[in-house]
Design goal:
This protein has 501 residues and is α/β, with parallel strands linked by helices. The chain is built from 22 helices and 21 strands. Helix 8 packs across helix 9 and helix 19 packs across helix 20.
Length: 501
Amino acid sequence: MPIVLGPLHHAPEPEVTCVEVATFLQIPGFQIVGLAGREVAEARERVRAAVAAMDLELPRRKIILNLAPAHVPKRGTGLDLPMALALLLADRPELRFAATGELSLNGSVRSVGRAVRSFIAAWRAGAGLLILPEGDLASLQACSSLLGATAGPGPAPRVRAVRTLREAMSAATETHWPGQWVPGPEMAAASWRGMPGVASIGPAAARLLAAAAAGQHHLLLLGPRGTGKSVAVETLIRLWPEPDPSRALCARLIQELREPYPNGAQGAVRKVGAQCTAASLVGRATGDGIFPGEFALANGGLLVADELPEWKRDARESLREPLQEGTVTLSRAAISRVLPAAFGLAATGNLCPCGAWPRSSGIGVCCCGLAERQRYLRRLSGPILDRVDLVHVMAGEVSSGPGWVPIAELASRVSEARSKLTARFALPPGAWTEARISEQLIAHPRWRVLAEGTQPASLRSLAKTLRVAVTLATLDGREEPTRGHFTEAACYRPERSIPRG
């Protein structure tokens, strides 16, 4: 009996199903066991028709086909091809390979998507060969540089693309195959940066966005309509760093868990509006598998939260876990799964329901009373604000001038500062954990004195001030943050930046 591995597409991590075949000298029959879902059980008829269409023949015996591990539910049509090959090659026990694909009644092999997950699962299982539909090869080639950087238990499996069941049999039994492919660094991963926007930006916004992008800090921009919040967010998208290969690969695997044929590049920007629900953000775990939400899909990239105060309360509060831990937990009855959700947050919002300028500015006419404005801002709860490093009220730099900073120059400064921070601390300050912050405070007692001098409201507020001050100092080309950097960092704390009157 050959060892044929098929995909297990609904598992949180890329895994495989081992297809086992046993035949008996009894009345011919075909039975599939191992918690096969409806579409898997129906594969029995597709396999029979495809084998007959290729002028091949199944054993004239009683066949029991087991899908191991037997306690895990099996879903999808990607097991069609592995089951057919296990039956047709039952007399070749020396073979060991992985395969995925849906069988048509005429014997052709259809794509089922999730090609990268199938490749990683086959690699982790130690399969030396992966047979997949011809249409899925392009997905692997697009992620070639990511797959080439992956460390598996052994050599990466060879990939052979096929169009029919007979070609799949030949690919499994022949040593040389003209269509085989192995990953390598020759193809670069697609960029996920935003589309080109403004050419330059005001000095205040440039300073804020440079700090957010260099240190990978969470950012909340508040202000009346027309103050440039959307322009600032689009600029931040262009400044935000590309994810490293391992995180980009993780993002791709999560995307394929939800969508068989994901669009866009790895770690793409996810934009969420006020109509979102907690379920769409967090995701869900059901008996049919794991369905990631926007938090997990933004892993390694940037989550743009438009009009955050307008979100439903449960949707806003669901930000707590990913902002603090970089993960999201999906729970259902006895099922509990943790998915990575380490993203940067770029949120925007108005200062009041009408979104106009306050009367004191002389620019617009705000029709909201003091109590209404305070009630609106209280939608941004303390626990959420505590997890955002940079909170800023936009002043409305609406016209260019001599002090405006070109985006290309700003990107260069951000890249240089990010490289220095990574070389010195290994992690950007925005990703420092509490343990890392404690280490820095012990190693630099003066930093603690300067941070406490800003009168932080809590330990988390002190940590935010420290992280931002280190980033600001690096942007200025200094090794150590000064008192001015700590004072500037304290101005981005919500208790100082958000108006209460």
